[in-house]
UniProtKB/TrEMBL annotation:
<dbReference type="InterPro" id="IPR037075">
    <property type="entry name" value="HCHO-activating_enzyme_sf"/>
</dbReference>
<dbReference type="InterPro" id="IPR020568">
    <property type="entry name" value="Ribosomal_Su5_D2-typ_SF"/>
</dbReference>
<protein>
    <submittedName>
        <fullName>Formaldehyde-activating enzyme</fullName>
    </submittedName>
</protein>
<dbReference type="Pfam" id="PF08714">
    <property type="entry name" value="Fae"/>
</dbReference>
<keyword id="KW-0456">Lyase</keyword>
<feature type="domain" description="Formaldehyde-activating enzyme">
    <location>
        <begin position="9"/>
        <end position="171"/>
    </location>
</feature>
<dbReference type="InterPro" id="IPR014826">
    <property type="entry name" value="HCHO-activating_enzyme"/>
</dbReference>
Amino acid sequence: MTDIWFKAGEATVLAAEGQATDAMPEVLIGSVRGPVGQALASMMGQVQGHTRMFVVRDLNQLVRPLTMMTTKATIHTAEYVDLLGGVVQAAMGDAIIDCVSEGILPKDEVDELAMIIMVWLDPRCAEDPDLDKADLYRTNYEATKLAISRAIKGEPSIDELIANRKSVKHYALEGVIEY
């Protein structure tokens, strides 16, 4: 039985210049016997516009720990689904397996853990004829690994958050408030 009960993490990796391939996964990790496992099981049905799927690296390659991915943006096109279930899913699958192989996730507990990853895929990606799929892979791979690592380590710590409260602000607050 795992000691990892309920851990959350997130990360943002920015796109290359001229791309809309920013990745911003939010990860929840925990025991299959706990609230994360229950939440994953309750996600088995589909919700219109917010596809849910197990993370697979390729056909017949379901990752361990069992991971469900879902979108933060509403899906409107087949092109979006193709990117989500293709490049993005593959990048996340590779990142999860690398987290296990590198010891970020405990190999001996993979069947005791479940993960839910909320995925940001900018809707502009599906419409961009010059989309750099390699950059889409890169951002999602790096951000998934970082989000998982942060979840396991409990980062950022509350002390870090308190220390940077007046020096770090959300990008959307530029010109809105001053610290």
